[in-house]
Amino acid sequence: MRTLKFLVPAAATALALAACSEAPEATTDETAATAETETDTAAVDAETTVLDANTATAEDLAAVEGVSPELADAIVAGQPYASVTDLNAMLMETLDEDEAQAVLVNVFVPIDLNTASEEEIRLVPGMTDKMVHEFEEYRPYADMGVFDREIGKYVDEEEVARLRQYVTL
After folding, report:
1. Distance separating alpha carbons of residues 26 and 103, to the nearest angstrom
2. CA angle 21-25-26, nearest 5°?
3. Contact between 117 and 109 (Cβ < 8 Å)
4. Which of 153, 121, 124, 145 is nearest to 135 (CA)?
5. Alpha-carbon dihedral sign for residues 103, 105, 108, 111
6. Considering all CA atoms of the chain, what is the largest pairwise distance in Å, rounded to the nearest integer?
7. What is the pTM of this model?
8. Whose CB among 18, 72, 84, 104 lies 3.0–4.6 Å from 62's, allowing a Cys bridge?
């Protein structure tokens, strides 16, 4: 009888521990899967391609939010653009400033990090006065790794990846 009294609680404890030890693994797997999905989503967001206004087709442009088929045709008719300021000037002929800025989020003429004017840098979506200064401060950029490292001092990796879509060397 004493053995039975000892074995029942011991068995119950063993079952409870087994159940508890399985739960964290399942939770960890679920958490890892959720984290992977969130990371994949963030990567997709960061990798969402910004169309180059100099090479995009009317069909590609018309698929962009805020770009009507007529505007897409006008953008294509204006190709090639010497700079993003030229694209912005064309957009401002038919759109207000907010609408033009919304289009520039997804349609842009990449700026050269080493030669872009302040006006061109300011057209990068989400640009702040501080970031304009930082873009200019680290000139000349030897390669995109320098951009990643130096701008990465001020913003996280996701933001660096987003900004990278608007620049070139």
Report:
1. 44
2. 115
3. no
4. 121
5. positive
6. 94
7. 0.71
8. 72
